[in-house]
Design brief:
eight-stranded mixed beta sheet; alpha/beta; 8 helices; Rossmann fold; 263 residues
């Protein structure tokens, strides 16, 4: 049964024989918002509202959790545990693409066919952060944003540098980046779930096509951002002019506009 969220319509969409609810709002070029752990929380919905109000047709697929339920540590821990045993996510794979990407690619293709324009945009967050990179395999993905990409999970050097992307998909992503499709990545500097090694790897693989936004969360930082800050445009967003998270949000909105609006 679909769960309503204020300001959104919801409908079931089926690809690869799998049906999922997709929440929608706005008009204009399509942007896929892939929510973080534990689900489509009020702060994720707030972000989707902001993107829609900036002139985009936002689609938020429900990948896990209860839509509209507020963030809490027990709720997040439970959803993370479920994701770890869900084969669709393959959370420990450093050099493998999650199987759920096939469904998300079909969603992007459908959104592009419906909304038109140069292509679609996407933002992944936390456990879905790397998914926006994997979606670049399709030519319809023109504006990928990786917000605190947290897969693969692990403390080894391989895990920290992992992109959660198969070797074949990485070849295609690098080709598209070299051909003029840029990628934005965002993280807090002391976020252990999105280590600096991962952004170093992205710079190595994508070169100047990778735009890194790294927000100071060290002790004593000028904006009082807590060391444990993780969610750049949702839970840890401070919606005040001049705040680094608001600057990051504004850059993402501008990026979608630059890439998705003809001319």
């Amino acid at each position: 049964m679909s769960v309503p969220i204020d300001g959104f319509t919801v409908a079931s969409m089926t690809f690869d024989g799998v049906a999922r609810d997709v929440y929608r709002r706005g008009s204009g070029p399509a942007v896929i918002v892939m929510h973080e752990i534990p689900g489509i929380t009020p702060t994720v919905a707030r972000f989707a509202h902001i993107v829609a109000d900036a002139g985009f047709s936002v689609l938020v697929p429900n990948l896990f959790g209860t839509p509209g339920r507020a963030m809490s540590m027990p709720y997040a821990a439970g959803q993370l545990a479920r994701a770890c045993v869900n084969r669709e996510f393959a959370v420990f794979a450093a050099n493998g693409t999650s199987p759920i990407i096939s469904w998300l690619r079909a969603l992007c293709a459908a959104a592009h066919a419906e909304r038109g324009g140069p292509g679609v945009g996407a933002i992944g967050m936390c456990i879905t952060g790397n998914f926006a990179l994997a979606l670049m395999v399709d030519d319809s993905m023109m504006a990928p944003v990786l917000s605190q990409p947290s897969l693969p999970i692990g403390l080894s050097r391989c895990a920290k540098r992992g992109l959660h992307l198969s070797d074949g998909d990485l070849v295609t992503v690098k080709r598209r980046a070299a051909a003029g499709v840029p990628v934005i990545g965002m993280r807090f500097t002391h976020d252990f779930m999105c280590p600096p090694e991962r952004f170093e790897r992205l710079r190595e693989e994508l070169g100047d096509a990778f735009e890194a936004i790294e927000i100071d969360s060290s002790p004593g930082n000028p904006h009082g951002i807590p060391r444990q800050a993780h969610s750049v445009v949702t839970h840890d967003l401070v919606d005040e002019a001049g705040h680094p998270t608001r600057i990051a949000l504004d850059r993402v909105l501008a990026f979608f506009g630059e890439r998705l609006r003809p001319g």
